[in-house]
Design a protein that fits this description.
Layout: H1 12-21, H2 32-40, E1 49-54, H3 59-71, E2 77-80, E3 92-94, E4 97-98, H4 101-114, H5 122-137, E5 141-145, E6 162-165, H6 173-176, H7 180-187, E7 196-199, H8 206-214, E8 218-221, E9 226-230, E10 234-239, E11 242-247, H9 253-265, H10 272-280, E12 289-292, E13 296-300, H11 305-320, E14 324-329, H12 337-342, E15 350-354, H13 364-372, E16 380-383, H14 386-396, E17 401-406, H15 409-420
Parallel strand pairs: 1-5, 1-6, 2-5, 6-7, 7-8, 13-17, 14-15, 14-17, 15-16
Antiparallel strand pairs: 2-3, 3-4, 9-10, 10-11, 12-13
Helix pairs in contact: 3-9, 4-5, 7-8
Pathway: Cofactor biosynthesis; tetrahydrofolate biosynthesis; 7,8-dihydrofolate from 2-amino-4-hydroxy-6-hydroxymethyl-7,8-dihydropteridine diphosphate and 4-aminobenzoate: step 2/2; Cofactor biosynthesis; tetrahydrofolylpolyglutamate biosynthesis
Domain Mur ligase C-terminal: 286-409
Keywords: ATP-binding, Folate biosynthesis, Ligase, Magnesium, Membrane, Metal-binding, Nucleotide-binding, Transmembrane, Transmembrane helix
Length: 421
C-alpha cells in the first residue's frame, strides 16, 4: 500500500493504491460524506445535463447506446462507468474516448486537498473525480452509471436531468434486499419530482411505480408507455408516434429500446437512419465479445441470474447450429453462483471451473459445490485460475466447440489479457 500522500506529479497507479488504502471499507452506503466533499470543491454546480442510469444489468450497454446517439447529433458527452476491465481509464470517457492519466491525477489531487477530514471510499473518489473531469470539459451531457442500487449510491448526490432504470433483479442482496420489490425501491431512489424517469424492466415491481407516483416523477414505463418486440433478425420499438424496426444490435434489444425511449422523451431522438447506423456500429467490450476464431472463444461479464439467462439465449443460437458449448466459469464469493450457473445449464456440454485470486474472489472448490447444486450432468474440470484453464482448453477443444468465459468482470479481464498476450 502507498503510505506517502501522492501529489499532482505522482502516477495514476500511485494514486489508485493510495485510494484503496485510506478507507477501511470497500463499500459504505450513504450520501452525507460524499455530498459534503462535492459541495466543498464545488462539483454540483455544473452546466452539464446529467442522466443517471441505474439497473441490475444493462447500465453499460444502455450508456454506450445513449453516448453514440448523442454524439451522432454533435453533442459533447461525458460517460462514467464501473468497474473497469483492464485499466482504470476505461471508467471515464469524453466523447467516447478514454483520457490520459494526468486528468485523473489532477482530479484526485484536487479532491484530496479539498476533502478535509472527510473519508471517501475508492468508488466515491472515482465518482467525484469523474464529475470534476466532466465539469472541467463542460460537456453538454453526462451519462452517470449508478454503482450499487440507487438511493444511497454516491452518484445520487447530483440533480439529474433524467433518470433510467434498465433492469431489476437480485444482486448485492446484503445491501439491497432479497426481493425484487426491495431492489426496485432502492433503485427508484434516483427518481426526482417532475423529472423524466424511464424504466426498461419487463416486469416492473410495484415499489418502483409506487415511489415514482409518491414523488410525482415523470415516469415512462416499459409495457405501458413504450414497447419493443424482438425476433431472430431484429426488434420493433414503439413509443408515442414512433414505430420503428431495426436489425439486431450487439447489445440487448431491451436496452436499445430503453435508450431510444429516453431520447424521444427528451426530444433528442436522432433521425431514423442515424439511429440505424449507430445501432449497427455499437460494440461493448466484455459483452459476448469474441476473443478468438480458432478455437472459437467468447467472453461475457454475466455474473448474476438475469445476465446469465440473457447469455444462455445468446449461446442457444450457436447450440441450435450444432456447436457444443464449453463454459469456463470463475466468480466472486458474494455472487449467487448456483442461480447463475443454473441459468445456462441447458446449453452447456462441458464445464471448466477456476479460482479467482483477488479481493472477494471465490475458490474452485466452492464453485464445484455450487455446480453440484444445479441440474447439470455435464462433466467438469477444475483449475487454479483462468489462465491455466485457457492454456488447456485452447489446446484441446475442436472446431465444433464454442468456449464461453464468464462469471465476473475480473474473469473477463483475465480472458482478454490472455488472448492479447
Amino acid at each position: 500500500m502507498t503510505e506517502i500522500l501522492p501529489s499532482q506529479s505522482s502516477s495514476l497507479d500511485d494514486w489508485l493504491c493510495y485510494l484503496e488504502s485510506i478507507h477501511p471499507a470497500n463499500i459504505e452506503m450513504g450520501l452525507e460524506r460524499v455530498a459534503r466533499v462535492a459541495n466543498q470543491v464545488d462539483l454540483l454546480n455544473s452546466p452539464s445535463k446529467i442522466i443517471l442510469i441505474a439497473g441490475t444489468n444493462g447500465k453499460g450497454t444502455t450508456a454506450r447506446c445513449l453516448e453514440s446517439l448523442l454524439l451522432a447529433q454533435g453533442f459533447s458527452v461525458g460517460t462514467y462507468a464501473s468497474p473497469h476491465l483492464i485499466r482504470y481509464n476505461e471508467r471515464v470517457r469524453i466523447n467516447g474516448q478514454e483520457l490520459d492519466d494526468q486528468f485523473h491525477v489532477d482530479a484526485f489531487d484536487m479532491l484530496e486537498k479539498g476533502r478535509g477530514d472527510t473519508s471517501l471510499t475508492y468508488f466515491e473518489y472515482g465518482t467525484l473525480g469523474a464529475l470534476a473531469i466532466f465539469k472541467r470539459h463542460a460537456v453538454d451531457y453526462v451519462l452517470l452509471e449508478v454503482g450499487l442500487g440507487g438511493r444511497y449510491d454516491a452518484t445520487n448526490i447530483v440533480t439529474p436531468h433524467a433518470c433510467v432504470i434498465t433492469t431489476i433483479d437480485l444482486d448485492h442482496k446484503e445491501y439491497l434486499g432479497d426481493t425484487r420489490e426491495l431492489v426496485g425501491y432502492d433503485k427508484a431512489g434516483i427518481f426526482r419530482n417532475n423529472t423524466p424517469a424511464v424504466v426498461g424492466d419487463l416486469n416492473i415491481p410495484h415499489t418502483v411505480t409506487d415511489y415514482g407516483n409518491e414523488i410525482n416523477a415523470d415516469m415512462v414505463l416499459s409495457g405501458r408507455d413504450f414497447t419493443f418486440a424482438e425476433d431472430a433478425d431484429g426488434f420493433n420499438w414503439q413509443y408515442q408516434g414512433n414505430n420503428w424496426r431495426f436489425a439486431k444490435p450487439a447489445i440487448p434489444c431491451q436496452n436499445a429500446a430503453t435508450a431510444l425511449t429516453l431520447l424521444s422523451k427528451l426530444a433528442l431522438l436522432p433521425r431514423e437512419q442515424q439511429v440505424r447506423e449507430c445501432l449497427a456500429n455499437l460494440t461493448v467490450e466484455g459483452r459476448f465479445q469474441q476473443l478468438s476464431d480458432t478455437p472459437r472463444v467468447f467472453t461475457d461479464v454475466a455474473h448474476n441470474p438475469e445476465s446469465a439467462r440473457y447469455l444462455a439465449r445468446k449461446l442457444s443460437v450457436y447450440k441450435d447450429q450444432g456447436f457444443k458449448i464449453h463454459a469456463l466459469v470463475a466468480m466472486l464469493a458474494d455472487k449467487d453462483k448456483v442461480a447463475a450457473m443454473s441459468a445456462v445449464v441447458d446449453v452447456v456440454d462441458e464445464w471448466s471451473l477456476a479460482s479467482l485470486d483477488c479481493f472477494r474472489g471465490d475458490t474452485v472448490e466452492n464453485l464445484a459445490k455450487a455446480l453440484a447444486e444445479t441440474p447439470s450432468t455435464a462433466p467438469s474440470t477444475h483449475y487454479p485460475n483462468v489462465e491455466a484453464a485457457l492454456d488447456k482448453i485452447v489446446q484441446t477443444v475442436d472446431a465444433n466447440t464454442l468456449v464461453i468465459v464468464f462469471g465476473s468482470f475480473i474473469t473477463v479481464a483475465a480472458a482478454i489479457n490472455y488472448f492479447k498476450k
